[in-house]
Amino acid sequence: MDDNTVGNFLRARRQMVHPGQVGLAVDDGRRVLGLRREEVAMLAGISSDYYLRLEQGRDSHPSDQVLKALARALLLDDEATIYLQRLVTPVPERVFAPSVGSLDEEVFDFLGSWDHTAAYVLNGCLDVLACNLLASRLLPDAIYPGGSMLDQIFSDSAKAFLPNWEDEVVRALASMRERTDPNDPRLHEVVGKFMLREPEFARLWARHDVGTFSNGAGSYYIAEHGLVRLSWQNLAVPSDPRLMLVATFAVPGTPEDDALRSLAA
User: Where is the HTH cro/C1-type domain (predicted)?
Assistant: First the structure.
């Protein structure tokens, strides 16, 4: 992965802002994707030369005042602003993603007590560290200790059957970027693997999206029921903020609930 993390982030987010979003006139002959460097500098109240140094990695330690000005100019939300601050001033103690085998057996016992909810634990790199039986039946090729939700998202079946597949990928990568340390060796391993294997990954990872998602819905194939839309809820693990518990469920009494219960039977 490139060492110029601050510059890469600024460049990617600059290219995602339309001039009209920040009150700039749009020229019909404009060839630049997003904002020009000098436009970002003007909006942030800094010199064009200084902004160029930031993007090129020749200066990677802007002040808090400059960071806030850049966040406003690039229309960053709170999560993306905090991520930019983390890139500029990394935390002294690294918080690398926990690995498979690092969880106590009590976690597996807890997940196993959820009879009609598919539940599993992920680290920031979307590795599956623990799951219950229903979750492993729901996505047997991905949800097992040592499995990867990224492998599932980029599988041929997901690309073929998931509505709005690219939106699902964007959310997954935004969450991965927000929840991992940029220097985590496991993150480098995962990104390197998918950069080589998946052209879509390289394109979407380069967007530098950042975000957390607490709930939503996804489509799952269940035999004799076809594609079933199930809700999911991401729950924080208070004892370890590097972990996330995902609970996938259906409203009781619905056809989706019948499908999920058929897996548990």
Answer: 30-74
